[in-house]
Amino acid sequence: MLRFHQVGRRYGVGGRWVLRGVSLALPAGTLTRVTGANGTGKSTLLRLVAGIDSPSEGRIEGRPRTAYVPERFPPALPFTAYGYLTHLGRIHGLHRRTARDRAAHWLDRFGAEAYADTELSELSKGTSQKVAVAQALLAEPELLVLDEAWTGLDAAAREELDAAVGERIGAGASVLFVDHDPRRLAGEVTTAYEVTGSSLVPAAATSPPEEGEEGEGGEEGQDGSDGDDGDDGDDRVRIDAQAPPGTEPPAGLPPGTLHERDPSDPSGTVRFSVPSAHSDALLRTLLTAPRPWHIRRVHRPSTPARTR
Whole-angstrom Cα distance, residue 89 to residue 139? Predict the structure, then answer.
């Protein structure tokens, strides 16, 4: 499992910190979404996760076999589409025949088989993007990093990529993605974060409203309260998390943290509730515990207080 420990990234000597103090864990079989305004550092975060960039401070541990789809795919490479995918397969350690078979498979699956012998520099933007996605999938990565990977794809190819993401998660891989469409994989996201002010903070995952929740907004209610924590009116964040059976909540929980286990829930989910000002600290505590917790969902008040 990949882990970030207080990772930061700056550009140039004395340059601006794009990211700083980022702690993150990507457990197997999870789908993590990253949001944020343009220019806040989303692509920098994904490049760090993929191993394309190195951190300026902090450390990254446990990176599994990783594949990456960049925001911009370099088309001016001296390969045909099929030749490029076969070459990448060999770099990933695949046997030559396996690399060829998987290259053909993914070109066919994304509807680009007719362009197998076309030079990359002659492909349309949409077909180039299909090749970019195919190269990330052909080696069956344990960690898949997608930076606006759906942009430029036609509807059929977008559906195929959605399905491929589900297949990788089902096989036990982790997937981290950025996409401009808030509906992308809605309801499938395990954990969501927002990049803001050089920090990575929890964000509410987009999902269909659960029974008993308000349909508009997908949260507990429009008054900003959790509705079942019995607090004194302060804004609170609710975090549903899982750990191996018998695991007790970690030591050092932030001030004001409440937690309860639902005995009727066979998954062993524990519901944590914490004042908004301490939500980031609680997430870090859970994700970096000796036995890391799997964050199932983060419920923020309608007007959350962010810690920068």
Answer: 6
Q: Give the full edge-to-edge strand order of the sheet including 17-26.
A: 17-26, 2-10, 57-61
Half-sphere exposure of 214 (CA within 13 A, CB side): 14
What are the structure tokens assigned to 200, written together?
A: 């990575």
Beta bridge partners of residue 176, listed in sequence order:
32, 145
Q: Which two tokens stand for residue 189?
A: 């996201």
What tens digit of pLDDT does each residue of 118-157 get? 999 999 989 999 999 999 999 999 999 999 999 989 999 9
Question: How far apart are alpha carbons 180 and 89 in whole angstroms?
Answer: 29
218 contacts 186 by C-beta, under 8 angstroms: no
Q: Is-contact 193 33, C-beta < 8 A?
A: yes
Query: Alpha helix (H) ranges present in the chain?
Result: 42-50, 81-91, 96-109, 125-137, 155-170, 279-287
Strands of the sheet containing 294-299, edge to edge, are 258-261, 270-275, 236-242, 294-299
List 238's β-bridge partners, or say none. 273, 299
Distance CA 289, CA 283 (A): 10
pLDDT in tens, 1-31: 999 999 999 987 778 899 999 999 999 999 9
Overall pTM surpassing 0.90 (yes/no): no
Report the distance separating Cα 127 and Cα 244, nearest Å. Answer: 43
Sign of the torsion angle spanned by Cα atoms 12, 16, 20, 25: negative
Helix and strand numbers (H, E) in the chain are: 6, 13
Tell me if residue 273 falls in helix, strand or coil: strand
Q: With contact defined as beta carbons under 8 Å apart, do 40 and 88 qualify?
A: no
